[in-house]
Amino acid sequence: MVRDVEQKKAVYDVFEERGFLEQVTDEGRLRELLDGKVTCYIGFDPTASSFHVGNLVPIMSLAHMQRHGHRPIALVGGGTGLVGDPSGKDQMRQIITYEEILQNAEVQKKQFSQFLDFSGGQALLLNNADWLTKLNYIDFLRDIGVHFSVNRMLATESVKIRLETGLSFIEFNYQLLQAYDFWYLFKHHNCLIQMGGSDQWGNIVAGIDLIRRLEGEQAYGITFPLIMTADGRKMGKTEKGAVWLDPERTSPYEYYQFWINTDDRDVKRFLALFTFLPMEEVEEYRKLEGADLRKAKEALAFEATKIVHGEKEAIKARNASKALFSKEGADKDAIPTKYMEKEKFIEGIPIFKLFETAGLCASSSEARRLIEQGGGYLNNKKVDKFDLVIKLNDFDRKDEILLRAGKKKFYCIKLS
User: Fold this and answer.
1) Residue 188 within any structural domain of the chain
2) CATH of the domain at 271
3) Is 178:206 a contact under the CB 8 Å cutoff?
4) What pairs with residue 414 in β-bridges?
5) What is the domain extent for residue 411?
6) Pairing between strand 39-44 and 191-197?
């Protein structure tokens, strides 16, 4: 793993100065533990076929732990995913099939390897289906359920919220299963710390209590804040939906553009959370203001893209972005691209429809408004008619056209 000057700091201090910490159990003892070598874990339910930007804080925290010599466990929730975590949700999650969960878990494994080094047991990648699906229900109730107070579970914030809209029995069991995970990892892998989002506090504390009751030992918990953007949106959510780590769902260029379009108010905070740049360098970027803040955004976009997609793709995305903004010839291979059949352009397609097809606008009406307000471009020339019909003669010698919405959103259409 790459080591940086922050190796000299305790990981707890790194978490604190970078903005990772929300709540902890027994700060003094945690600091002592983290001065040595310790095993920690975070669970990830495989409810989607890819992680998205909203998952980055916990994943980055595991990477920081490993960089400071600790052993992280990335726990894929193949078992708990069959139940569904009610935490932070106002309605029941859609239950997906076991086959879908296994498929999603395989994709997650590949994405974890971009952040963690699993060689030589430096990090562990486990799936709780390996033990949860083998539990005998009656034995589980007698051995584990007996230690849980329904009154205390009902007092948990995530449960209280859901009681207003309805909480299924299967979801009510989730806390027991997550607590069992913590105990299992404590017992079999000497895992002393569970980490997670702030909505996991009740589940983490339940696991700590179960370990104390079953083993007479002390375990610990750390939670991270829910990251909101300056305009009040959940991190990783855009008008087009989630920003995925899978390049097939969000291309490296689109990923880079997401970060470079960060609100000015968020840049300094996101540099600390979503890159491995030393804090000394982050502090230098924090001094930038006005037009100079663009340098900080470029650093954020490049570093965040490099972590997920590799340096080669990050350089490609940066070069394409700079070329487009400077109106030079761009490397269109780095821009989101769609192939369309040549025959469709014999009669032609209205350009507002192409903007919708490309995902530059959420609907035809939005595309029409964009063009009427002067925000639509074809091959870097402003489009003055929303119903302009695009035909074969509008494509260049490479059979391509370049669409642009506003200053920052590009899309290439190629003939197939």
Assistant:
1) yes
2) 1.10.240.10
3) yes
4) 339, 400
5) 337-415
6) parallel
Q: What's the rounded Cα separation, in Å, for the pair 258 and 364?
A: 23
Distance CA 323, CA 314 (A): 14
Residue 124 bridge partners (DSSP):
73
**Per-residue pLDDT reduced to its tens digit, 174-231:** 788 899 999 999 999 999 999 999 989 988 999 999 999 999 999 999 999 999 888 8
Same domain, 52 and 193: yes
Q: Quote the pTM value.
A: 0.77
> Cα separation of 270 and 302, whole Å?
13
Q: Rounded to whole angstroms, how far apart are CA atoms 184 and 180?
A: 6
End-to-end CA gap in the chain: 43
Q: Which residue has the tokens 């990335």?
A: 74
Phi and psi angles of residue 238, each rounded to the nearest 5 degrees, phi first: -130, 180
Tokens representing residue 56 in the block: 């980055």
Question: b/e for 229-247, b at 16 or more Cβ within 10 A?
Answer: beeeeebbeeeeebbbbbb
Q: What confidence tens digit (pLDDT) does each residue in 228-271 have?
A: 888 888 887 665 678 999 998 888 988 998 999 899 999 999 99
The Cα 101–Cα 78 span in angstroms is 6
Domain identity same for 166 and 22: yes
**CA–CA gap between residue 290 and residue 17 (Å, rounded):** 24
Q: Report how far residue 99's alpha carbon sits from residue 46's, in angstroms, rounded to the nearest whole number.
A: 11
Number of structural domains the chain divides into: 3
Question: 106 and 242, same structural domain?
Answer: no
Mark which of 329, 352, 374 sits at the end of a domain.
Answer: 329
Over residues 84-89, mean pLDDT:
52
- Average of pLDDT values for 149-160? 67
pLDDT at 185: 98
d(CA 101, CA 89): 19
Name the nearest CA neighbour of 179 among 125, 226, 143, 136: 143
Q: Is residue 259 located within the same domain as residue 281?
A: yes
Same domain, 181 and 62: yes
The DSSP 8-state label assigned to residue 226 in this structure reads P
